[in-house]
Amino acid sequence: MSAGTDNYNSVKAILDANRNSLMLLDLQFTILALGIGVGTFFAGLYGMNLKNFIEETDFGFPLVSISCGFFCMVAIVWGLRKLRKVQRLSMWGESGSLSPENHGRRGRGSWREVDPQNQLSGENRVDRTVRWKQDQRMNKMQEGSNEAL
Predict the structure, then answer these.
(1) Which of 36, 39, 38, 20 is nearest to 83 (CA)?
(2) Alpha-carbon span 38 to 31, nearest angstrom
(3) Which domain holds residue 22?
């Protein structure tokens, strides 16, 4: 039963990660469409044949074209930066904590730094994982013996 639950949880985690990446792609396309929409808004204002005397100058069309491209890029860059800022949210909350212990460092750091695992000198990751699994088994055995009482 436990192996089935573990398999279910891992498949669910993979599907959640895929769904999150698809949502991120959808947001990127939406930001791109927003940027293009901003550019076409200014182009539409220029093309409405309003009397603003820009169209009578020699540099009117290039000026409007360049400004439309500029505003389009500004909207896209702004949107992608905001998206990246939201994307950096971690399990600790928004990055950029101003607490004194994190001075000079972005964010609150890794969750592993908060409660580091007890490491024996010269112990590598594999040995640490084996020791952790053995500790988990011992804890389960102790819980089982306590439940019998």
Answers:
(1) 20
(2) 11
(3) 2-91
